[in-house]
Write a structure and sequence with these properties.
The structure is a single chain. Helices cover 45% and strands 15% of the residues. It is α/β, with parallel strands linked by helices. Strands 1-9-8-6-5-4-3-2 form an 8-stranded parallel sheet. Helix 2 packs parallel to helix 3, helix 4 packs parallel to helix 5 and helix 8 (174-182) crosses helix 14 (290-312). It starts with a helix and ends with a helix.
């Protein structure tokens, strides 16, 4: 599976692990990279020195390429951006903001920059700024999302830019991966499937809630604030949605979920914590090593593409 993305990043398979805050640590990133994909450290709201430590830990586990996701709303974003340049990480993906002011510094350090986008307009803007590729994420994804589905968004972004497009949102197996290729993507970014990997360090309660989820068990909160988030239904999502319906203020809603993702990931509180997950949770029935997950994805994608070719003959 050789694409412009595999050549750009020096990886074996066009599979990128999502940079999930509190979830994507050095252990998961190293396992994905060692298996031939691109592992990402999710910096979330972490301080710069934690990110530096995680980078060093990945390098102790693998010599394969890996990257870091920088949430630009992080209060420590300036310091983290500097660390990424100093450490000469292979790739930086960015979300929740404009990475323009860091682009020259990263480029000088040899860092590949791949912003996450949820619209054609933002994809075009990132290309003009010098991005090496973009991740087009559909609303099927877990965590922070836009409003367009992957099926609608990915081909429009592909048509709008010349740089490679990585499809994200709704990919849980090789069929989804093949579908992204058919839409014009040259790689996929996958989050939820790697949450239920053996190397992922999230609490077992979190993994089991994802595995037990059905197709209708995810919900989007935060539309009223302009920051929609997809997670699995629980006590917190029910209260949040009711408060949104009643016209609660941004501050009230923020207080309700403050620290809730960490509680779910680290403490296993899947009742009042936030269990971010994509809609593909209903596809996931087991927990496997990252290497097996990637091997399955590649095998299933190949079979799906062969079947599609046969149907068109």
């Amino acid at each position: 599976m050789n694409t412009r993305v595999t050549e750009l990043l020096g990886i074996e398979y066009p599979i990128i692990q999502g940079g999930m805050a509190w979830v994507a640590d050095s252990q998961l990133a190293a396992a994905v990279s060692e298996a031939g994909g691109l592992g990402l450290i999710g910096s979330g709201s972490a301080p710069a020195e934690w990110v530096r430590e995680q980078i060093h830990q990945v390098r102790e586990r693998t010599d394969k390429p890996f990257g870091v996701n920088l949430m630009l709303l992080n209060p420590c974003a300036e310091e983290v951006a500097q660390v990424l340049a100093e450490e000469h990480v292979k790739v930086v993906t960015t979300g929740s903001g404009n990475p323009e002011k860091y682009m020259a510094m990263w480029k000088d350090a040899g860092v590949r920059v791949i912003p996450v986008v949820a619209s054609v307009a933002l994809a075009r803007r990132m290309e003009r700024m010098g991005a090496d590729a973009v991740v087009a994420v559909g609303w099927e994804a877990g965590g922070h999302i836009g409003e367009a589905t992957s099926m609608a968004l990915v081909p429009q972004v592909v048509d709008a830019v010349k740089i490679p497009v990585i499809g994200a949102g709704g990919v849980g197996d090789g069929r989804g991966m093949a579908a992204m290729f058919m839409l014009g993507a040259e790689a996929v970014q996958i989050g939820t499937r790697f949450v239920v990997s053996e190397e992922c360090t999230v609490h077992e309660n979190y993994k089991q809630k994802v595995i037990a989820a059905k197709d209708i068990d995810s919900v989007v909160t935060g539309r009223s604030t302009g920051h929609p988030v997809r997670s699995l239904r629980n006590q917190t999502t029910r209260v949040y949605l009711q408060k949104e319906k009643e016209g609660a203020t941004f501050e009230e809603l923020e207080t309700l979920t403050l620290g809730s993702l960490r509680r779910a990931v680290k403490e296993g509180d899947v009742a009042t914590g936030t269990v971010m997950s994509g809609q593909i949770a209903g596809l996931l029935k087991d927990c496997k090593p990252c290497r097996e997950i990637i091997e399955d994805l590649v095998r299933e994608a190949g079979a799906a593409l062969e079947q599609a070719g046969a149907l068109l003959r």
